């Protein structure tokens, strides 16, 4: 039996425990949704205030230069580069993940022409599947989406690129990024990775793995806030030949020369399109302070410990209550989330949220719990499962109000 006191002891011995102070968390909430919208880092409100009141309010348009707004996408990109194993000058923070994926998939086609298949997997996030289907339709190509376990065996000489999300948003299943990248290259294909559910919560070494292109989300484990800009990585060897399918002025070599013809910027700036979303970008920049001096290997160790603890408690206390574990049991195959299937999943998650335990629901039956190591304690995991036991034992979820479906689940 795992006791709450044991969890308190683990918190006392946790080398990352001090990171929790870098976030503003509401009292009485156990936040298990950092995989969807990260918590608010402590420095963000003041940074937003300065950006709005000082830089915008007083500096006005001068702030594009004086406050360094114009190259903030690159500076934030360099900070993210440090978290994903990329060198400075290869990552830019801009646009949304969907748009960056579109740019990357299109650009990959010009880097690896003459092949007719985009290979992904059936578990990929819908926006990724939609973007790829759209690109494929315009180019007369085919999207192949086998089951995640069958991707490696499906890479053949017809494949132009293997485009996958590293951690499955539903189950938390973790692809072997270096291995699949190597298999893609061996078959003459490129690799395009979506790091939405992995950036900031585990060590990633894009350069060591030889990844060609990658994108990721700013508002999940990077905690950049709702609608935070996403990021885009281009391997140094492709920078000069990366053709952005959206030729906007901020991807131009000299935007303020207002030339009539497009000439791409020399570095990763060519992946930009238009005016940066400055307020969101400033928030993301401030949010990244929470990663100062943080070793992502330590974050990963704690992430595995948290998900292992959650699973152990689920096994111990929720047996016979109708749950099945949808996430891989082996920690090496799992990201920082655990999903439980239950036919009444939606109502169960709503009942939990009402009690301050915030996870989310993914249709048709997944209760999804994300574990963000910088601000989550072991005792939170214990308390969350305790609430779940209450919700089940007392059938709290049966109340009609827990069945009302909101637009965002
Ligand atoms: C794997 C993956 N890609 C992309 C997105 C969303 O992209 P966007 O920032 O364009 O909304 C998500 C959102 O949850 C995601 O999980």
* Major sheet details: 7 strands, mixed
Structural class: alpha/beta
- Taking pLDDT < 50 over at least 5 consecutive residues as the criterion, the unreliable ranges are none
Number of strands: 15
Mean pLDDT over the full residue set: 97
Which strand-content bin applies to the residues?
Answer: 5-15%
Question: Based on CA inertia axes, which overall geometry fits?
Answer: globular
Report, as a whole number of angstroms, the end-to-end distance. Answer: 33 Å
Rg, Cα atoms, Å: 22 Å
Strand order of the largest sheet: 4-10-9-8-7-5-6
Number of helices: 12
Helicity level, as a percent range? 25-40%
Quaternary form: single chain
Q: Give the ligands present.
A: pyridoxal-5'-phosphate
- Helices and strands, in order, run as HEEEHHHEHEHEEHEHEEHHEEHEEEH
């Amino acid at each position: 039996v795992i006791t709450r006191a044991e969890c308190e002891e683990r918190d006392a011995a946790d080398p990352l425990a001090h990171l929790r102070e870098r976030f503003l968390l509401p009292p009485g909430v156990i936040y298990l949704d950092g995989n969807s919208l990260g918590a608010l880092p402590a420095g963000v409100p003041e940074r937003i205030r300065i950006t709005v009141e000082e830089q915008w309010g007083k500096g006005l348009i001068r702030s594009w230069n004086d406050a360094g707004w114009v190259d903030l996408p690159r500076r934030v990109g360099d900070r993210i580069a440090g978290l994903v194993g990329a060198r400075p000058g290869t990552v830019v923070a801009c646009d949304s993940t969907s748009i960056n994926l579109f740019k990357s998939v299109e650009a990959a086609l010009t880097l690896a022409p003459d092949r007719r298949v985009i290979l992904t997997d059936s578990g990929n996030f819908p926006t990724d599947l939609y973007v790829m289907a759209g690109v494929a339709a315009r180019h007369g190509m085919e999207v192949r989406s086998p089951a995640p376990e069958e991707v490696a065996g499906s890479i053949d000489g017809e494949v132009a690129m293997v485009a996958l999300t590293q951690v499955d948003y539903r189950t938390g299943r973790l692809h072997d990024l270096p291995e699949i990248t190597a298999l893609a290259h061996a078959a003459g294909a490129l690799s395009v990775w979506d790091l939405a559910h992995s950036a900031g919560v585990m060590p990633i070494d894009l350069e060591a793995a030889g990844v060609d292109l990658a994108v990721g989300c700013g508002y999940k484990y990077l905690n950049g806030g709702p609608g935070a800009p996403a990021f885009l990585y281009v391997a140094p060897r492709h920078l000069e030949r990366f053709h952005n399918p959206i030729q906007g002025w901020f991807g131009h070599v000299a935007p303020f020369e207002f030339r009539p013809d497009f000439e791409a910027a020399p570095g990763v700036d060519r992946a930009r399109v238009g005016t940066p979303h400055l307020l969101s970008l400033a928030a993301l920049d401030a949010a990244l302070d929470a990663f100062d001096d943080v070793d992502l290997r330590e974050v990963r160790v704690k992430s595995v410990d948290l998900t292992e603890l959650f699973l152990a408690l689920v096994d111990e206390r929720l047996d016979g209550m109708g749950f099945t574990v949808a996430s891989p049991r082996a920690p090496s195959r799992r990201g920082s989330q655990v999903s439980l299937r239950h036919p009444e999943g939606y109502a169960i998650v709503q009942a939990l949220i009402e009690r301050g335990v915030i996870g989310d629901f993914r249709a048709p039956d997944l209760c999804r719990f994300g574990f963000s190591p910088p601000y989550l304690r072991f005792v939170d995991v214990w308390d969350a499962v305790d609430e779940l036991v209450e919700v089940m034992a007392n059938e709290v979820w049966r109340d009609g109000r827990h069945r009302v479906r909101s637009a965002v689940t």
